[in-house]
Structures are given as C-alpha cells and as structure tokens.
# Entry
Amino acid sequence: MRVGRSSVRRRTLGAGLGKSALYERYRTDAAAICTQHLSMARTPVAAAKYGDNQLLAKVATGIAGFDEISLGGLPRNRTTLVMGGPGTGKSVFALQTLVGAAAKRKQAGIFVAFEENIDAIFANAAVFDWGLPALARKRLFFMNAQLSPAFVATGDFDLGGMLAMLEAKQLEIGAQWVVFDGIDVLLSLLRTPRARMREIYRLRDWLTRRALTTIITTKIDGEGAATDAANYGFMQFMVDCVVRFDRRMEQGIPVRRLEISKYRGSAFAPGEFPLSFGPHGMAVASPGVTDIPQQVSNERASTGFEGLDEMLGGGLFRGSSTLITGAPGTSKTTLAGLFAESACARGERTLFVSFDEGGDRVRRNLRSVGIHLDTHMKSGLLQMYSGRTDAVNPEEHLLRIAAQLAEFQPRCVVIDPMSAISRTGALSSARAIGNRLLYMLRDHQITAVITALVEGNDPQAEATELQISTIADNWIQLSYLVRGGERNRALTIVKSRGTRHSNQVRELILSDTGLALAELYSSGGEVLMGTLRWEKESEEKSRMLLRNTESAHKRRELEFVEADTAARITALQLDLERHRAALALYARDDAARQVSSGERQTEVRRLRGASEADAAVHGPKRRAAKTSRNGNGQERARRGQ
Amino acid sequence: MARSERAVASKRMKKGVAAESGTTVVVMRLYIAGRAPNSVKAIANLDAICRQHFKAGYKLEIVDVCEYPRRALDDGILVTPSLAKTSPSPGANVIGNLSDTSSVLAALGVRSASAT
# Structure
C-alpha cells in the first residue's frame, strides 16, 4: 500500500493547475489508482512493478532542493526545457545535473555549448568543487557549437549534420544525457519561423529516437520577446518538463528563483523557489520534506547559565532550538556566548555564526563578561563563521552555513543575530530562510541558540518580523524595564516546549563575574528592579522593623492587660469565696441559733416540771389560740361590716 | 580512424578545371548531411557557382557528416550544409544551402564582376 501511495503522488499532474484544482486532481487520481491497484495488483511487489512500468521514471539531478520540488528529478529519457534571462543560472543547472550524473552514477553525457566557449565554461565551473576537468576526460564530451561571427549564412540550413555527429559521439561514449545550452543562439540563425519549427521538430524526433535525457536551455528576454513567444511556446509544448529561471532585484540584492511550470505526467511543488550558489554549486530552497523523521531526545543540554537551566527545568532539550529575542544591549549575545562556552566545555563541537560582527570582536566582547572562547577556538572545538549581511543575499548565507554544518558537524550552533538577515533582501525570503535554517538544524539534531533583535520592547514584535518564534522550541525574551531613571534587564521564558518552565519574569544582573538571575521583586502589583528595587527593599525593611517593634510593644501592653484582668479575676474570685464563706458561716449560725432556742424551751419546760399532758394540752391550746385568732379575725371582719 | 576517413573522403573529391597557369586555386570543403534537401541544394548551387566563377580552378571536397561524423566534429562543423574555404587565405565559412550566390561569392572573396 505504501508503494501505491508514493506512486499516486508522482502520477498526479500539476501543470498549470491551481492549488485546489491540484488537490482535486490528486484526490481523483488517488482514488482511480487505488482501485487500479486493488484490482490489478494484490501484492506489494506486483504493485511496485506495475507502478514502475506505468509511471514516469525520473532521474535525480543531484541539485539540492530541486529533486524535492520536482518530486524526484527530471523525466528520464525525455526533454526538459530550461528558460530564463541572462545570468539566472540555466547553464549551471544543466551542467551541474550532467556533472552529478557523471560523478555519482557514472553516466556519460554530452554538453553542446551554443552560447559559451568551452574554455569559459570550464573557467566558470572552476568555482565549484565538481572536478570538472577530470570528469570531462572520463565521461563528458563538450561540443563547441559556437558559430563564429565569421560565418556567413547563405540560405537555409539544418541540424541534420550536427545530430549525426552527436549520434556518433553518443554511441562512442555511451552517453545517457545531452545538454543543448543556449539553443536560442542556434535558432536565431534560422530565418523563418517555419525553418525554426522544422528544426525543433527534427531535434525532438532525434531525441525521442535516441532516448536521451535532455536538457535544453534557452534565453528569454525579460518577459519573453513577442517574436520568440511562438517558438518557445511550441517548445514548451514539445518538451515534458519546463523549468523557468528568474533573477530579480529585491531591495538592491539580486534574488534568483526557479519555478517548474510544467511537468508532464508528474506532480511537482508549485511556486517559485529561491536558489543560491555555493561551493558545491546551485542549491534550491525547497520547502523541505513534509514528513521529517525526527528523533526526539530527552537529554538536556545546559545553557551554561545555572539560573536559566533551573527556569527551563534542567536545560535545553538536545536538538531543540532556542530563540532569544530582545532589544539592543539586553545581553542576548552574552547568553549565546555562555551556551557556546558550556557546549565546548562539554567537549561538543560548536559553530558560532555571527552576522555583522567579526569573530574576534565577539570573543573580545564576551571576554569582558567572563566568557572565554579563545581556548576552545584554538582546540578546534569552536568554529566561528562571520558574515556581512549588507551585500550578500540571505540565500548565500544559508548555503554557507549548510556547508559548514556538513563539514564541521557541530552538535551545537549559535546564530547571532538571526534578525540581521532580514535587514537585507525581501522579508519574505528572509523568513523562508529563517525557517529553513531552523529545520535544517533540527534535522541535524543540533541544539541551537538563535538570537534575534527586536526593536522596542514589545515581545510581540518578534512574532511579526521573522516568524521563527513559532518554530523555535524555546523562546526567551529579554527586555528592559525602565523605571526610576534606570534601565534594567528582565528575562522571561515565553515558551518552552515539552518542559514545565517558570512563568516568572526575572531580573538579569550582569557583572564582572558573569550573569545572575534575581527573583522578581514585586511591590503593590509593580515589578521593581535595580536601585529602585534596592530602595524599595530597604524601605520595606525599615518599615518592617518599625512594625515589629510596634507589635512587640502592643503585645506587651496586651499582655499587661491580660495579666491585670487575670489578677483582677483572681481578686474577685477570692472576694467571692470570702463572701461565700461568710454566707455559709451566717447560715450555720442561724441554724445553730434555732436548734439552741428549741433546746432551751425543752430545757425550760423540763425545768418547770411540766407533764406530758400539759405538753399535749399545750398543743391544742396553741391550735385553739390559732383558731380564736382566726375567729377574732372573723369577728373583726364582722365588726368592720 | 581519422586518417582512413579522410582517405575515403578524398575519393569523393570533385576536381574542377586544373589550374596550371599559376593563378590561385580555391580549395573548399563542403559538409553535407546525406540526402537532406538542403544538402542536395547546396551541392547543386556550389557546382553552379564553381563552374561559373572559378574558372581559374578549384578543389572541392565533399564530406558527408552522416558517414564521417568524427571528422566533422574535429573540423568544428555544426550545421549542414556548411562550406569551408581553406585556401587561399583568409579562410571563410559559409553555412546554408548557398542559394544566395552573391553573398557566397562575397564570403569567399571572389568579385562577382570579374567572374563574368
């Protein structure tokens, strides 16, 4: 099924279709091919065979990026037309493809130069590390097809002879490739459009018969002169693949681009892609592979700054990219330098890319804050690359950095500042470069620290400038807080993927001994730093002291009140007890008095010698007396009436 | 290889009127591509020009590029038909089917006025 899917992609036709149309087409094709596969090929092996026979075979050009956007390279045994203005890189494209095939796959090829002298071609190619002279001896044949100005054209002529010669040469060296460089020069000698058409036909027939993989380059003036339009229109129809090259000035810097405008029987990445030239030749800025096999590391690498490591939960993840943004002078470079130093100290190869500042100057500046890179530089662990950004196309820088990555194989990379590349050239291309650089570093599993300058203090500003903050794994924002006539540095971790990171703003303190992070001091909802912080702190301290004294005093006072009250309670208690005791005493006295009076009566009676009867009479007598008293009452009541 | 090609080619050489009287003999080589229409035309045109204008004598060698591609390559031939004048100096190169007689003569350094 895997095979089926990949073949679907190659089958899809992309020429002249819009994005949505392409998608629709892709879907329908995919559906059609899937059913075909299901009905015709049950096993993966059979499917693969079927796919190979049925689909367009491609040959990789070996040009970085181009094979990705063309989804495999140029059509095998077919013709590709390369069009563009002067100096856009058509010839380099053709020659590099030929050289790549000869060097990597040992395929022989013929280069027919209509426009340039063979010696000039060799001289031009000498700037690239292709080893062209050696290859040319072994597998390449260069045909000098320049018509000297001394040639006089008298009447009609044709390419029959040339093709016969090429055929002989092809058989001799077993060539699989042929390049016609600058066919417009030849065609311009043909006087009538009919003759031109006839020769184009002749050429096509011959190429088809010889089954050569062909690249034809042709110049077009700007938008393509009207007279050429007919020919090239026809040629575009005739060939299977058309690649257009373009060179434009963008803010004073030339930007070269290429676009695949037609690819018969194949899908391709639509749109224009910037291209650049480096020591290995041309490279096309492909948007990159969509499915990147990325291993994720849980290993942490120190930033070289203890406080920051702590905030990041132990350091940076291996292979992650960290963006440090900040206004000028917020010590972005210092942080980057710390990272580089610690990486070297761990014995990891580190590449320090500094834009607009020489390596020596960067090292000197870092020395002043206690970061010493010179020894690592000598030991070869550290490599510095400095580039000026005012004259060089950002693409060039990217390519040079890529070359350094390939050669030096660093584990850690510092880019300081990334924002420099956006100063020159178009912002859109600078953005694309930023993205590609980040992806490139990620693909190499390189732990990267990238700084970017932000004008002003708005942390959102970076997000709109290079837009790498969205791709970077970590984003550290450095800013100034201006208060009380002072600028103080503050550090915030805006994001840190896969890490529980501190969300606090910290004060970054720079001294001779290095960097330190201070806990944030906030007072009354305000962040305080520097002298203001010190003032506030001491003020707070004295106030605290005062408060402490006050409260101690108050406590003592209260303690006294408490003690006083307690004492009073004790006194009252004692008083109460005394009263109770007095009361009890009184009650006892009373009882004793009653008892004694009773006893006295009996004693008196005993002493009087009164009998028992008397005693008995005495009782009723008392009762009678009582009633009489009542009677008296009644009497009194009657009397009252 | 190249040598045998040349030997065969020279057999195809057409000889014009021999020039014994010391006047300059024009030496030319015409490269053609088999029986291609332009090549056939070029031979006929050149034949006519020679007969008419090179009374003093000429040497013409006709090389069929289809048969001797190596030789044509070595001679730096590109398109056919193509005529190269090697002697007397200066040499000249004329491409095309030679239908424009006056420009052919001008290129070969022959005054058409004296030729008539």
User: Anything to note?
Assistant: Chain B touches chain A at residues 31-34, 36, 38-39, 41-42, 45, 65-66, 69-70, 72-73, 76-82, 92-100, 103-104, 106-107 (CB under 8 Å). The helical segments of chain B are 2-11, 37-53, 69-74, 101-108, 112-115. The first strand of chain B starts at residue 14 and ends at 15.
